[in-house]
Amino acid sequence: MRIPDRVVRFLFKPIVFAASLGPLAWIVWAALTGNLSPNPLSDITNETGVWTLRFLCITLAITPLRIITGWNAAIRFRRMTGLFAFFYGTLHFLIYAIADRFAGLDFTNGMFTLATARNLAASVGEDIYKRPFITVGFTAWCTMLPLAFTSTAGMIRRLGGRRWNLLHRLVYLTATLGVVHYYWLVKADVRRPVTYGIVVGVLLAVRVVRAWQRSGTPSMAAARRAPAP
Amino acid sequence: MLIKPASDIRSSEITPRALYLNRREFIRATTGTAMAVAAGAIGGEAMLKAAPPAAHGRKLENIKKSPFSADEKPNTWDHITTYNNYYEFGTDKDSPAMLSRSFKTEPWSVVVDGECNKKATWNLEDILKGQTLEDRIYRHRCVEAWSMVIPWVGFPLADFIKKCEPTGKAKYVEFTTLYDPKQMPGVRQPVLRWPYVEGLRLDEAMHPLTILTVGLYGEVVPPQNGAPLRLAVPWKYGFKHIKSIVKIKFTEKQPLNTWQESAPQEYGFYSNVNPTVDHPRWSQATERRIGEFLRRKTLMFNGYGDQVASMYAGMDLKKNY
User: Fold this and answer.
1) Most buried by CB count within 10 Å: which residue of B145, B219, B263, B265?
2) Could you tell me if the ipTM is greater than 0.95?
3) Does domain B63-260 fall into CATH 3.40.980.10?
């Protein structure tokens, strides 16, 4: 499939970008029109969390998509979907900090004071330390930080393709921790987190199988290692 | 002359072409499946849409006010009838509102069994015959750290228990929810073990705050809130408030309630609201009152300590959570 570079850059990319903002627009619209449940903060927290996981799945699905369809231009969308995973993950974390932690603080000296900022940091820190599912979720978000930071062309050049690729395998950990975070959060109905677990599992298994396939194929390297007669 | 290096790869080590192609096929098949499942998971969940509140039902008559009512502003009908944990109708908060609309509550009967003199099957009308109904505005605290104020209509469970004449052996009361896969889509999934079971110690069941609920806001209680007969024990977490009761059994041994069976390290038998005993996965110190932004401090026994604390004197409430 040959699609001209200009079409990808000026048509496809803006479309994917706008579509990726869709979930946020949808949440905001639902909140403004009263289409959230009576516990809207919980809905917004859950929705942004689930969309983080969805964008991670989409990002991880790009390599398999290339394998199946041979459409290598798909890789040109990977940075964008990965950054959207980071975007929704960051929203998720901020909303949790506000709705779950900030809203539970004591405001003895007023709401917007230095003491409030300190208490909020302490409250978030304590929660991350105390509750395994928060620890895992926060760790998952942290693993996205270096990936977002090194997502620019300049950083790829500076790191070199090989090292950059190695670093960005961290996303396998992000997705796995994301699923564990979701699984530990639900009370009894684990069907959704298990579905995400299967999706992430298969997407990662593709990488394992591919590595196995490559190692099983007689490579040029092996041929080069052949002793001279 | 062409000098060809001798290969150190034995022909047996070279992957046969057929097998090599199989791997390709395998990768294609697995990735194809992954994409399909991913698409399903990504598109399959419910879109954000507020559930419609319950239709208004028949007005209940001759309701007495009660000194046990909380002096707090109740949540709205919409809040109370669209935000429900009733897993028999699905595990999302809005599923009960959407999936219980055609739930049949007439006729309704309740089996009374176990350690009592009057084992019988009661029609709901007979249970209510001559029974004064009361408005009971109760604080309702869910184990998930949200709360509401709910204007129930009901009557003391003690009134009914007396009619059943429990024997000296009766130490506990076990309640069972209807199990009807035809009407309750949630029970087709083994999320919990069905039917749902809850229990109280006999003194808890006889406590004047403990009521059997038949109404909400002066009307017949809607299906998503446990029609036609549900329990309210306001100093305990919401899951103790068993819904759509079809059986009441007096027992000598402590009943195994469904959530305790499902996750014993997280949910106990007593399940008294207690801000000092955290759920292993989240804090119980604060709660979000539905409709409010700032979280409230959770009160010991949900603020009913003056009436109920004496029942637990000398008990280790950290162990008996």
Assistant:
1) B145
2) no
3) no
